Amino acid sequence: MKEFRLQPLRLCAGWKVAYNNFSEYDPACDGEEYSYELCEDLLQLENDNLLIDLGWYRYGDINGSYKIYLVDTKREAPYERPLEVFSSRSKAEILDKLEYWTQPGFYAKYKVKYPK
């Protein structure tokens, strides 16, 4: 049985990893045998009011796709009104999007300071 390490990530400072189950498994290269690596709770990153949530939809289905959300946790029903959503079957595209979304030049437009 093959074991997969966690996927290396290049993230800008300020993001906290809430959980990480995002492995180096790539459905395009590694095949269906290890599709148990594909779950809805792959990665969650937090930065103040912002949250990036990555999952694979449909769980374990090699024909599914990655879906990444950027939400404002202070908004009502944040997943019903996400700030950004991106979906792809390509792991490379998802990694590019994660890197882009965590750059201050991108997310600054969504960052809101709420009183504590």
Report on the structure:
By secondary structure, the chain is of the alpha+beta class. The protein is built from three helices and five strands; from the N terminus they run E-H-E-E-E-E-H-H. A five-stranded antiparallel β-sheet has the order 1-2-3-4-5, covered by helices on one side. The longest helix is centred in the last third of the chain and has 11 residues, at 91-101. The mean pLDDT is 93.
What integer is the average pLDDT? 93
**Class from helix and strand fractions:** alpha+beta
Determine the strand fraction and express it as a percent band: 25-35%
The helix content is 10-25%
Main sheet: strand order: 1-2-3-4-5
Model regions low in confidence, pLDDT < 50 over at least 5 residues: none
Shape: elongated
H and E order: EHEEEEHH
**Major sheet description:** 5 strands, antiparallel
Count of distinct structural domains: 1
Rounded radius of gyration (Å): 15 Å
Total of helices: 3
Number of strands: 5
Give the termini separation. 49 Å
Task: Write the topology of this structure.
Elements: E1 16-20, H1 27-30, E2 43-47, E3 50-57, E4 65-72, E5 84-88, H2 91-101, H3 104-107
Antiparallel strand pairs: 1-2, 2-3, 3-4, 4-5
Give structural attributes.
116 residues, alpha+beta
Short description:
The protein is of the alpha+beta class and 116 residues long. It is 16% helix and 27% strand.
